[in-house]
């Protein structure tokens, strides 16, 4: 189970959000939508401790910590239970596709290189890049890089994978291959929180859609309900705008 | 005016070449030590380690802000008067120490720039999978920074080889000191120093050639 209780984040005097509560069951898939600048990325980054929350409690699996008193060990433990997929892929430029995937298994989980490579090659197979094991990021397309980014997150065997707009930096031609990999993970009931503007994906894959605006969770619910029958006026306005550009079938 | 005494130069060549290893050893040892020290300084500067950062800045400022010759005299002639255990320090050690401290200050700044140049998102990616700061530095940042900094560091190495000639002023008989001695007994100053110059020149040219080849290889790295 993943739980956020009263998570608060400020940058200086600017408060991004206060008192956010959010709970996911194992295997649940959440898509977070909302206008830009609302705090979606910051929220994901707090769960992974890439940003330090100012208050609240984070629970991931059997680890639960008060963010104001988290020790370095607890932070490392939290990061080992969560994995992150970045908008700009953020692959290690000095490592091949295979080594990008294996790095965490070797350095963080302490697997031998041989063991890691066996698992790494399985993952390459699953992300459809078995033939690119030795390729460096610079020689891969955006779609391939993002699939390696997802592969790296899969390798972490995390309780939850956090996706921050994983397709919005991609050329349109590469979007589908990344979304279909994410759908495949969803079918395997990989717990995930996805920040995305891909409404079609949200509709097909999400168990629950969360709408955020101005640092608050305005409403949430199953995609059918939220998309067809949004209760809050802000949700309605946002959906009208987004769906006008990208109708969902 | 006399014509160049080529026979004398040919006879002197093997004698002077005999001192080349010492020159290269001093530069090699100085370079290795400077690389280690410079990397440490650079990491301290990048991570703004409390306390150490201020010390590193002071160190870098001092060793970049004063002439190498002054630093060498300070270590060899000056410091032993205060720290008496240093009286036993010989000229070679003092030279290596001086080269290390002096060049590490410059090299630290190039390495720091190269570290800062590595895309910040890779740092976040490494942290996100639970790597520690140390693992991040060793496995992701430094390997990339080293490649970026290598051409500049090679320039410092070349500079260091030439600077070993200052060891002569600490009474070390290295290439420069040996030339001086030979010239003083033959009175053929022009031939002797010309030959020394040519030897330094050739060594530096060989290194520059290596540097260009290395740079080509480095530019191709991570592209496959
Ligand atoms: N490192 C930072 N320093 C200061 N302000 C930030 C930082 N990161 C984000 N913010 C601010 O926090 C707010 C939320 O940003 P973000 O989480 O990126 O929104 P979203 O992902 O929903 O577009 C914005 O007002 C943004 O300017
Ligand atoms: Mg964002």
UniProtKB/TrEMBL annotation, chain A:
Signal peptide positions (record): none
Broad class of where this protein is predominantly found: membrane
Subcellular location: Cell inner membrane
Pfam families cross-referenced by the UniProt entry: ABC_tran (PF00005)
GO molecular function: ATP binding
CDD domains found in the cross-reference section: ABC_HisP_GlnQ (cd03262)
SMART domains listed in its UniProt record: AAA
UniProt keyword annotations, A-Z: ATP-binding, Nucleotide-binding, Transport
Domain ABC transporter: residue ranges: 2-239
Membrane topology according to the record: Peripheral membrane protein
Alphabetized InterPro entries for the sequence: AAA+_ATPase (IPR003593), ABC_ATPase_HisP-typ (IPR030679), ABC_transporter-like_ATP-bd (IPR003439), ABC_transporter-like_CS (IPR017871), MetN_ABC_transporter-like (IPR050086), P-loop_NTPase (IPR027417)
Family the UniProt entry places it in: Belongs to the ABC transporter superfamily.
Protein name according to UniProt: Amino acid ABC transporter ATP-binding protein
Species annotation: Chromohalobacter sarecensis
UniProtKB/TrEMBL annotation, chain B:
Predominant cellular place of this UniProt entry's protein: membrane
Entry keywords, A to Z: Amino-acid transport, Cell membrane, Membrane, Transmembrane, Transmembrane helix, Transport
Superkingdom of source: Bacteria
InterPro entries: AA_ABC_transptr_permease_3TM, ArtM/GltK/GlnP/TcyL/YhdX-like, MetI-like, MetI-like_sf
Transmembrane helix among keywords: yes
Location relative to the cell: Cell inner membrane; Cell membrane
Topology versus the membrane: Multi-pass membrane protein
Keyword Transport: yes
All residue ranges annotated as the ABC transmembrane type-1 domain in the record: 20-211
TM segment ranges: 20-43, 55-76, 82-103, 156-176, 188-210
PANTHER family the UniProt entry points to: L-CYSTINE TRANSPORT SYSTEM PERMEASE PROTEIN TCYL, MEMBRANE COMPONENT OF AMINO ACID ABC TRANSPORTER
Family: Belongs to the binding-protein-dependent transport system permease family. HisMQ subfamily.
Protein name: Amino acid ABC transporter permease
Organism: Chromohalobacter sarecensis
